[in-house]
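Hmm, how's this folded?
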Amino acid sequence: MDLQRSEDTEEQIEQPEHIQEQDIRISPAEEMPVDGPREEESEQLFLPWDRFSAWLHCICVVGFDLELGQAVEVIYPHHAKLTEKEYFSCACPTTGILAISWHVFPISSLVIGCLGDTQFCFRFRQAASRRSSLGCFWDHFDRDAPVCLKKDLGHFYGYVYFRQVRDKSLKRGYFQKSLVLISKLPYVTFFHSLLKLIAPEYFEKQEPCLEAACNDIDRWPMPCPGKILTLPIMGVVMKLRIPTCSDKPGTSQLVQTTMVIETIVLVFVLFCRCFYPVFFHIQMLWELVLLGEAIVVMAPSPAESSDTVLALVSCIAPLRYCSDFRPYFTIHDSEFKEYTTRTQAPPSVILGVTNPFFAKTLQHWPHIIRIGDMKQTEMAKQMKVKKLKNLKTLDSKPGVYSAYKTFLNKDEDIIKQLQKGVQQKRPSAAQNAILRRYFLELTQSFIIPLERYVASLMPLQKSICPWKSPPQLKHFVQEEFMKTLEKAGPQLTSRLKGDWIGLYRQFLKSPNFDSWFRSRRKEMMQKLEALHLEALCDEDLQLRIQKHTEVETVDLVLKLKDKLMQAQREQLPVRAGTMTKLQAHIESVILSLPDDLQGILQKPATP
């Protein structure tokens, strides 16, 4: 697809913003309105490539060179940078080969017999020193997304489209190349759909096609949850709705191109396909992921590896999995030594691997899932969890290898339901819906008692006094929470029996609980600050200052301005008009002071 065709497409599609490129002159650092920017105003604040950066960090092309091996040939846009730590693998820092290039050439696909196109994803750490120029906008657009769909603060995702076809004109005899999208957004299915549009065109028309695609993406609206986003790309219009945190969990969202594809935007891959070889153990896998246990997935291909890891991570949704996970992990990853050492216990991480070398290197890990093809006649043989000593090579039979004892009794009903579906050749979409609903209801039954108890830690609204600091949240006391489970535990919504108390005790020690509670505590503290701000807004400040000296009034104004700025910065969930009304109150108080003080207090404060 050439550049001219991209321009024609732009003329045919109504853009969300109605601003010509030459009119964009405002820096994102400029001060925004008190109640936050309206969408049409915020669009004016973006500089060239800001919209592209909101979706992607860059697009890479990786080819195979007979002398150099894998090599990054092109990075678009050309100004995009990756730090040295993000670039290079610590396993071979002197070779100058990008770490990315080791991920985008599937080890299994390097076998000559494996031809065609392959899609998968990987994940790698972002340098700690990296800072985004879109920080305030990220906060604005990211706050309404579900926790599982928020941008990843510490990692990049790499979405890969790999092609291997016979080509006698090349010395190697095969064309081998990957197109990679690097992004901080965990929109797995969306980016795979995008790659299906871009990659075939690129392999046919080369670099001009990438330039046109980048220009198209830089005209996209920001990834704002809850709205139907029109995304023109290379002559096709995609329509995407990113879910919001208020959406009902488990409902499908819409991605449209020339065809309609109903899908979940994030990582809701086909559970039934990923868990088919081990579906007798899905409940145990749910517990392992919930508790943040160290898990390694051994699969025959990067596609199966990444799909299975992402399915595991999303099986506890709407709870966010907060430990590290690597959909496709290689021996060239910079964390290879860290994750394979035997001098300490394996970390809380889920790894997806394909290299047979890992069968020996990670044999000491406590939980190993072997994914592969399994005939229906072999299903009965994998009902029992296998012992770890039985796993010697990557050729071991599919199954779960672990010494873990589940806290909850096995749910025979879901097993029978899935097994019946296999026997009756039920459509995979139906099997997938059954499994997804099962995981969702199980997680909700587990998390509701925690939500109920944490909500009780919130002070009563009547205890909030506008002229005193907001009251403090009560402390989370583990034994108090355990006592609530007797009458208001998961037995109210789940039929499963077992040691729920033991499962909760173990969960409270896990990274998933720590992150969940920090997030809930932050939300409640912001709610307290918002209620305190609303209480101040309802007060008569003119009447209040009549009882104070001039010095005390100036001090009050300064404190209120600081509080207002904090509310803007943290985007507190106040009722509509609160910020504007409080700003008007502050201005009226300033006007009642002498002229010299008015000049000082009316100067804009530094954020």
